[in-house]
């Protein structure tokens, strides 16, 4: 009997191992050997110890074919997910829980925008996308029986890749970084139910809705570096995902030798360096979406514009839902855009720069090939968006900065609240000319620092608004970089991981001062005041003070919002409203609170009470990292009973805040870190957040997480590559 049980267990284990091999191990990326492919000449992808492909090809078309192929090997399921979330096709594979996400994408017309953009793409852009798509499709066609495990678990086959799909992936990033229409609704509601002057005070131009995806990038002139050549750093802050959003790639072909991070689903390198220049990007956070309140009959689509009746276009969308009948929606499209929001009796159309005819182009490969500032800015001139701050350096010693992207010219309004669509008074006057966008070249300070702060001068000729970040992060970067010279690439990791918050240090001092002024005899607050009194402003995971000040800020923010708009105040979620609150505490204008010190102490008392509910009665044992704790789930494997959680990241206690250089919240953090040394490219550093591969059994699934977490990094191999394996691509095969 025992023997029979043992045999049964052995058979079950063998069967389980066979299933793991067949469905999870067998689809692992091929990193050596030969692939017969429909390319013009032999090409190769050599892989280093991190699984980074270093692609060599005789021409650009073949190089992009190989890039598409090797990216699909590691990230095909992620790529399919990105095009699906953009197009509104998630419910088809994941079920009704994703129906609202699909509705949002369909109402925004994402796939239709991509299809319309395809027709107007410049020929060179279309050819690059097509070559990249051929590489992806060749991988799919030759691996139908051994695709990534997620396709097996969800029981579907990926459809062939197209140029439109690559445009959809780009639109996904465009939307993620410009999705500000909800801010307009919030401000409108607060204005309708509150004190206009106070509400305007809480929505200053240089503070925004946060935390929004953001970034840091800076360039340092050679006179401040050890090599005498510039250094350039970039760490883009985006939402957590597993795998992470970026794929490290190096492409060598005649006329181009570029290395950095690529967006899976799009050709070329987004941020990185070639043999002469380096560049980084931060989100501009300039508002490029406007809501128009339309006088429309949603039964007929007839709407009023400048006293005339016009007919909206009806677009029918069929959303497939796994396990349920398909859902049909009708989207009315007015001259301002699709009806996207309904609030009470108001129906609002959304105008978005990405949907403007002819806007979507793809200058990334021109940036990858640029050799100097002139060529670089010429490529930026046709950059569609999202609105971005580009930071630049070159081996000749120059550093520069230029805003890029299609930004609307508005008349008499900032785009911060919905406006009347029927009058015609708020239509855009085209886009702001590129040569009138903020820029700098070789500033006297020798430092360029971008951290999503407002870079537009007060006398800028066009009305502007957006969810710009508070200036604290940019100021801290500049202060740290100015503190000494002789910088090296590896030194800049200390700047990228900096978690000092000037605002939170200020708020802690205000809380302590209020306590001292009131001579508060409240033993319950004594431990909190003791922690805040000696705190150095570091948002460190092992301290109590950052937890205290974070909670107190939330209560103070709500108190200010309720003073401005009593019934709407609790909805005010502007984490970057720190600029307004700091001004409020410094100037203490009448009419907000009966007693500022009493309000501060009430916020602290509420913070202490909440903190004790969360972490226990003894403040000395509190840790900020227990509050700011993140888990990054594998989107599909996580659902597998018993074993799925072992392929997640975390839970991990985090340091940092939305107001620190290392911008960290429960939803976003640095997605990569690059520190480029223009004196010697091989002294540059690069790492992504988690790893190169999306395959759970790949050695590169999460081999970079520890380095990212502790702000270490890896050599950005360029001139000298330590080859671990080589995958050769040879001619002679037609596409299947």
Descriptive account of the structure:
Strands 1-28-2-3-6-7-8-9-18-19-21 form an eleven-stranded mixed β-sheet, with helices on one face. Strands 4, 5, 22, 25, 26 and 27 form a six-stranded antiparallel β-sheet that branches. Mean pLDDT is 92; it is low at 207-212. Helix 2 packs across helix 6 (123-142), helix 15 (502-518) crosses helix 19 (596-615) and helix 17 (545-564) crosses helix 19. The protein has 736 residues and is of the alpha+beta class.
The major β-sheet equals: 11 strands, mixed
Shape: globular
Instruction: Give the strand order of the largest sheet, numbering strands 1, 2, ... along the chain.
Output: 1-28-2-3-6-7-8-9-18-19-21
The first-to-last residue Cα distance is 53 Å
The averaged pLDDT comes out at: 92
The number of helical segments is 21
Label the structural class.
Answer: alpha+beta
Rg calc? 27 Å
DSSP helix fraction: 25-40%
Beta-strand residue fraction? 15-25%
Query: What is the number of strand segments?
Result: 28
Taking pLDDT < 50 over at least 5 consecutive residues as the criterion, the unreliable ranges are 207-212
């Amino acid at each position: 009997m025992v023997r029979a049980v043992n045999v049964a267990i052995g058979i079950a284990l063998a069967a389980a191992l066979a299933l793991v091999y067949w469905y999870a191990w067998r689809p692992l990326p091929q990193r050596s050997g030969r692939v017969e492919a429909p390319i013009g000449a032999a090409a190769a992808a050599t892989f280093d110890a991190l699984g980074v492909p270093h692609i060599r090809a005789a021409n650009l078309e073949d190089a992009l074919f190989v890039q598409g192929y090797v990216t699909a090997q590691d990230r095909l399921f992620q790529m399919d997910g990105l095009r699906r979330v953009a197009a509104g096709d998630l419910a088809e594979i994941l079920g009704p829980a994703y129906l609202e996400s699909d509705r949002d994408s369909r109402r925004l017309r994402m796939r239709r925008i991509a299809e319309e953009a395809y027709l107007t793409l410049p020929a060179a852009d279309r050819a690059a996308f097509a070559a990249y798509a051929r590489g992806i499709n060749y991988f799919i066609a030759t691996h139908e029986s051994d695709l990534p495990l997620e396709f097996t678990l969800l029981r579907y086959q990926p459809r062939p890749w197209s140029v439109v799909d690559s445009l959809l992936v780009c639109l996904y990033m465009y939307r993620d970084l410009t999705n500000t229409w909800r801010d307009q609704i919030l401000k409108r509601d607060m204005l309708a139910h509150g004190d206009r002057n106070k509400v305007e005070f809480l929505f200053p131009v240089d503070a925004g809705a946060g935390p929004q995806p953001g970034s840091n990038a800076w360039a340092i002139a050679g006179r401040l570096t050890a090599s005498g050549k510039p250094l350039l750093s970039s760490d883009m802050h985006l939402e957590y995902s597993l795998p992470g959003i970026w794929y490290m790639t190096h492409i060598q072909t005649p006329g181009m030798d570029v290395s950095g991070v690529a967006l899976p689903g799009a050709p070329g390198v987004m941020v990185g360096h070639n043999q002469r220049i380096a560049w980084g990007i931060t989100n501009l956070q300039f508002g490029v979406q406007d809501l128009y309140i339309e006088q429309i009959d949603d039964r007929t689509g007839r709407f009023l514009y400048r006293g005339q009746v016009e007919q909206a276009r009806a677009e029918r969308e069929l959303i497939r839902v796994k396990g349920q009948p398909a859902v049909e929606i009708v989207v009315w499209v007015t001259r301002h855009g699709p009806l996207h929001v309904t609030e009470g009796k108001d129906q609002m159309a959304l105008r978005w720069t990405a949907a403007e005819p002819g806007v979507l182009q793809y200058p990334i490969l021109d940036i990858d090939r640029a050799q100097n500032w002139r060529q670089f800015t010429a490529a930026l001139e046709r950059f569609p968006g999202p609105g971005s701050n580009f930071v630049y350096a070159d081996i000749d010693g120059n550093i520069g900065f230029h805003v890029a992207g299609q930004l609307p010219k508005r008349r008499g309004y900032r785009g911060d609240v919905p406006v009347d669509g029927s009058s015609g008074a708020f239509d855009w006057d085209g886009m702001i000319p590129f040569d009138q966008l903020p820029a700098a070249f070789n500033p006297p300070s020798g430092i360029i620092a971008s951290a999503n702060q407002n870079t537009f001068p007060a006398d800028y000729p066009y009305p502007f608004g957006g969810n710009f970040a508070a200036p604290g992060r940019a100021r801290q970067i500049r202060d740290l970089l100015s503190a000494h010279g002789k910088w090296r690439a590896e030194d800049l990791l200390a700047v990228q991981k900096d978690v000092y918050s000037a605002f939170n240090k200020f708020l802690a001092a205000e809380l302590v001062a209020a306590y001292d002024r009131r001579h508060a005899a409240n033993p319950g607050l004594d431990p909190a005041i003791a922690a805040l009194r000696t705190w150095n402003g570091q948002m460190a995971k092992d301290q109590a003070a950052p937890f205290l000040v974070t909670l107190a800020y939330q209560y103070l923010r709500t108190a200010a919002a309720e003073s401005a708009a009593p019934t709407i105040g609790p909805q005010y979620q502007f984490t970057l409203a720190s600029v307004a609150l700091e001004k409020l505490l410094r100037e203490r204008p009448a009419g907000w609170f009966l007693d500022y010190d009493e309000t501060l102490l009430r916020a602290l008392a509420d913070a202490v009470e909440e903190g004790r509910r969360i972490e226990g009665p003894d403040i000395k044992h509190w840790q900020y990292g227990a509050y700011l704790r993140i888990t990054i789930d594998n989107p599909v494997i996580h659902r597998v009973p018993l074993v799925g959680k072992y392929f997640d990241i975390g839970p991990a206690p985090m340091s940092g805040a939305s107001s620190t250089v290392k911008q960290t919240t429960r939803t976003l953090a640095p997605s990569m870190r690059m520190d480029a040394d223009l004196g010697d490219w091989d002294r540059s550093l690069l790492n992504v957040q988690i790893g190169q591969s999306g395959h759970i059994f790949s050695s590169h699934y999460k081999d970079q997480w520890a380095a990212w977490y502790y702000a270490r990094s890896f050599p950005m191999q360029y001139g000298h590559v330590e080859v671990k394996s080589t995958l050769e691509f040879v001619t002679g095969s037609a596409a299947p």
